[in-house]
Amino acid sequence: MKILVLGSQGQLGRCLQDQLANSRYQITFASRKEIDITKFKETKSYISYFDPDVVINAAAYTFVDKAENEKEMAEIVNHLAVENIAKSCLENDSLLVHISTDYVFDGISKRSIKETDTKNPLNFYGKTKHLGEEEVLKNCKKFFIFRVCWIYGKYGNNFPTKIIKLINDNADITVVDDQIGAPISTSAIVTIIYKIMSERKLTDSYGIYNIAPNNFCSRHDMAEKIKKNFKNYSKEIYRIKSKDLTTDITRPQYSCLDNAYLKKTFKIELKNWDDYLVSFLEDLYGE
Description:
The chain is α/β, with parallel strands linked by helices. The chain has helices at 11-20, 40-50, 71-92, 124-139, 159-168, 186-197, 219-227, 260-266, 273-285; strands at 2-6, 26-30, 54-57, 95-101, 143-152, 173-176, 180-181, 183-185, 207-210, 217-218, 237-240, 254-255.
């Protein structure tokens, strides 16, 4: 099987390289240097030339705050480029694996979010990711859309790495306690995707799936869990409400993705959010 990974230098893309470098499959990792997905003709030509069985689109514009002022770039990367990739996959009869987000929902309902729930993004970033999903649905016959929430890993700038930096700087920390989600590590995501790609029969399983842990937590819960691994940091992590943040960006307050469909379809065993976080910290510090 030939696999093409787009966005190989991003947070998820670099993890894909780490964990799939010695895979039994023929995998090409393409960063923006090799394939700039904002250049539609170039991307289409490359996919046609490489003729992959699977395209994993790990490329995305992920700056939620900046998206409100950089709308054109967010629109191109998260929406229009995905349309181009989806159409190219259809022409080449390639399976498209596309990574999406909980931000396509408004997070108003206080129950787990199922794949079939109505989308209603609250900000421009969420809107572009929603439109990207729609292009995959409209233009692909063979696809997986994997929605993830609060993704983190050892590469890139994410919530755990920000908290760790503040702890190492012995800085005061204030974290919201009214945003609830289902955080998942890049390592766990890659492991799950690889298991699914290794299934012999996928034709009856195409569709949208949530990749999420078995339970949920607040941002404050995550920070407190991280703090326990740093015995020299004795300060309190202060709680704050979302309404008190100095930002105009509205984020979903309840982003608890339901993983029942994923587990039922692929017989995948998932862990609790804190188990994944502990594994991430152990991997980060070599413990």
